[in-house]
Amino acid sequence: MAIDLQLLGPAREPLDLLDGLVVASPPEGRRLFEYDGDAIALAEFLVWGVHDEGPGFAVRVADGAAALAVVAGTVAALTGFDIPSAVESPDAARLAALNPMARDAVRERLAHLVAGDEVGAVAQYLAEAGL
């Protein structure tokens, strides 16, 4: 007689890509990277950041375009794509089409985009980009 076992945890809603992503100030306990537009420096950080254990990381951004570049770079780092190319030419349609598991993976590593006084503008830019 066969016995069915369920080995999965309880179902939960996938993380929303934007919910709580953009914040005004850096949270405690998270590594913070200051993104100044240097795609290579961001790529070097992301290679470490997506594979490090712990609570994820935060990246300070100046505007919505920088925020979109960081999200694109994080996805590229997680999927093995060319990170500097993704940062320099983010594909908003590709990011908007991420499946729920991919969105979870991005949010587990990229905990926050720190935008200072530009929180509303950055969040709106990302939402208008389809994220």
Helix and strand content put the structural class at alpha/beta
Main sheet characteristics: 4 strands, parallel
Beta percentage is: 5-15%
The span between the termini is 48 Å
In short:
With about 130 residues, this protein is an alpha/beta fold. The protein has helices at about 40-50, 65-80, 85-90, 90-95, 100-110, 120-130; strands spanning about 20-25, 30-35, 55-60, 110-115.
Describe it.
A four-stranded parallel β-sheet has the order 1-4-3-2. The longest helix is centred in the middle third of the chain and has 16 residues. It is α/β, with parallel strands linked by helices.
Keywords:
131 residues, alpha/beta, four-stranded parallel beta sheet
Write the layout of secondary structure elements.
Elements: E1 22-23, E2 31-34, H1 39-49, E3 57-60, H2 64-79, H3 83-88, H4 92-96, H5 100-109, E4 110-114, H6 119-128
Parallel strand pairs: 1-4, 2-3, 3-4
Helix pairs in contact: 1-2, 2-5, 2-6
